[in-house]
Write a structure and sequence with these properties.
By secondary structure, the protein is an alpha/beta fold. It folds into two domains: 64 residues; 200 residues, Vaccinia Virus protein VP39 (Rossmann fold), CATH 3.40.50.150. It contains twelve helices and nine strands. The strands form two sheets. A seven-stranded mixed sheet has the order 5-4-3-6-7-9-8, sandwiched between helices. A hairpin with a 5-residue loop joins strand 8 and strand 9. It is elongated and about 70 Å long. The termini are far apart. It binds S-adenosylmethionine. S-adenosylmethionine binds next to helix 7, strand 4 and helix 10.
Length: 284
């Protein structure tokens, strides 16, 4: 990057640089990272394409695009992500929330009773996106958010605070249900479901930068789901709904696990891209 490159020139150069590193949307990511480095929004770049960058701005941007080309997820570099219309801090301590999980939350909200106080449980809360969204959009709910990772729980607590719902979320460091007490009306989980044998083939962003604990589903991707559904029945109120996010080809096996846990009306639903992605059941 020459000393007096303008916004326009830097963006053009960076598009090629990121493309050379196999980044899928190089122009868009160049704009996002430049706007972040300059502490402005993307529109601002279009309004001042001839602006020259200061040395400090160039250095900040250079460091960011080098990391991005090396595979650091864009969201880790930006430090936050939008989920269900809310803002969440993200980092290396927890999974970067995915858009499919917004569809899981949407279904959970549709099944949640509104006319009485309810207890919700988010198993494997990560950065807290499910727990915080439930608390935010269900004023009648108290939520328990569980994770085995203290780093993830730290991030989730911060996200609950910044979204103004910490008073209605209890955080538990627990191996699934081990330290969880009582019964719930709504249980939602996006568990680790990537088959262990496929982790080596994942994109570098996921394989090398997301916590293994968050993605590794064990053999066939089913071991964590088996563990979390084992004692589930004992934690459900009559009429409770359970919603799980699943991986490719896991629908029938996870549906069978929910039936074993005592659930009825178990069904597999597809996400917006048409893939089987959710298993939903009810406790009689
Ligand atoms: C796929 S991530 C989901 C994170 C977040 N709920 C989301 O949807 O973005 C799975 C989460 O389960 C947690 N986890 C893995 N094993 C666990 C266990 N044995 N007990 C509790 N949580 C666990 C991981 O730390 C991780 O945060």
């Amino acid at each position: 990057m020459s000393v007096d490159w303008t916004v326009r020139e830097i963006l053009n150069w960076t598009r090629g640089y990121l493309q050379g590193g196999g980044i899928g949307q190089p122009r868009l990511e160049a704009e996002i990272l430049l706007a972040h480095s300059l502490n402005v929004d993307r529109l601002h770049l279009y309004l001042s394409p001839d602006k020259s960058l200061t040395e400090e701005e160039r250095e900040r941007f250079r460091a960011a695009i080098q990391k991005r080309r090396a595979g650091v997820p864009l969201q880790h570099l930006i430090g936050e992500v939008g989920f269900f219309g809310l803002r969440f801090r993200v980092g290396a301590g927890a999974l970067v929330p995915r858009p499919e999980t917004e569809e899981l939350v949407e279904r959970a909200l549709a099944l949640a009773p509104r006319e009485r106080k309810i207890r919700c449980l988010d198993l494997g809360t990560g950065a807290g996106v499910i727990a915080v969204s439930l608390a935010k959009f269900l004023p009648n709910a108290s939520v328990t958010a569980v994770d085995l990772s203290s780093e993830a729980l730290e991030l989730a607590r911060e996200n609950a605070r910044s979204n103004g719902v910490s008073d209605r979320i209890t955080f538990r460091e627990s191996d699934w249900l081990r330290a969880v007490e009582g019964r719930y009306d709504l249980v939602v989980s996006n568990p680790p479901y990537v088959p262990e044998e496929e982790i080596g083939r994942l994109a570098v962003e996921v394989r090398d930068h997301e916590p293994r604990l968050a993605i590794n589903g064990g053999k066939g991707g089913m071991e964590r789901i088996e563990a979390l559904t084992r004692d589930l029945g004992a934690h459900l109120h009559s009429g409770a709904a359970v919603l799980l996010e699943i991986g490719e080809g896991q629908g029938d096996a996870v549906a069978a696990l929910l039936r074993q846990a005592g659930l009825t009306e178990v069904r597999v639903e597809t996400d917006l891209s048409g893939r089987q992605r959710f298993v939903i059941g009810r406790c009689l």
